[in-house]
Amino acid sequence: MTKKRPLITDYFSNVEAVTKRSKSEDDLQVDEKVKTAEGISSDTKPQTKDNSTTNEFTSFDKQRWIDSLTQEQKELLQLEIDTLHISWLSQLYKELTKPYFLNLKKFLQSQQSKTVFPKPQDIYSWSNLTPLPNVRCLILGQDPYHNHNQAHGLAFSVLEPTRPPPSLVNIYKTLAIDYPDTFQIPDYKELSKSGKPGGGNLSKWATNGGVLMLNAVLTVEAHKANSHANKGWEQFTEQVIRVALEYHEKHNSGFVIMGWGTPAQKRLKPFEKILNSGKTKDGNVDGQFLVLKTVHPSPLSAHRGFFNSQVFKKCNDWLEKHGRDGIDWSV
């Protein structure tokens, strides 16, 4: 598996950290990489080969946009203002003031007496752990885990000390098949004995690997799966996918998309044109994006082809073929 490369957003480190929860040493290191940026001064320009990439985001006048909002909009969108990474906010800010999204925020406001996951400060952790320029792989999920101390804004990932759920265990099994010499499945019992229970936190994939783990729905009521479906999140996250595709098409820096199961594959329907843009006359596709479709890794379906799908190896092979670093899938 390939070593990580420097991230463009290593330079985006000049404002307050997104989360306020207590942090381990690893969490603190992550925070240094994912602080929300409001701009870069002229005397601290990043040393990148293409400053236009950075300028796309820093030219967005966040404060001017905030000043243009009504008082009600400011109150409804405070979480987005505070925690949505600047690279994503600069591309999605118009979406936030559309009626459907404001209605979604009003719905979430009405749920404040209930327990909702993930915690508010973690809802947009996908945006901070995987800023837009860094995306190398998109893994599509459905909605967050709905039990305590699980969801933290990344599809399939769970917080410590939670035991990895069955679908994640199957993901690990597939990785062990793809990389038998280098990938080691986290042993929950051994980790617990050593005083570090868990093994299901995939934050490293996001920060070091550029893996965008995006659920279709970003919140859920405790113990009620899909309880926040059809409230507006699906429309918003579809736009997130569109932004990612259009940005990386523009910059000729395509990525791999994991479509696990029918719901995830249906989410890609609106983007067939851009995803098939490299199709040749003989039907082969070698465009800027690779879609890897397989069954879902849940215990109900994984045995029907997920384990031998080689999705992780195919992902890295494609990235390296197209001049991008492969992903270190270790956890």
TrEMBL record:
Its EC number is 3.2.2.27. Residues 19-36 have a biased composition (Basic and acidic residues). One of its GO terms (biological process) is base-excision repair, AP site formation via deaminated base removal. InterPro entries: UDG_fam1, Uracil-DNA_glycosylase-like, Uracil-DNA_glycosylase-like_sf. Keywords: DNA damage, DNA repair, Hydrolase, Mitochondrion, Nucleus. Belongs to the uracil-DNA glycosylase (UDG) superfamily. UNG family. This is Uracil-DNA glycosylase. The gene is UNG1.
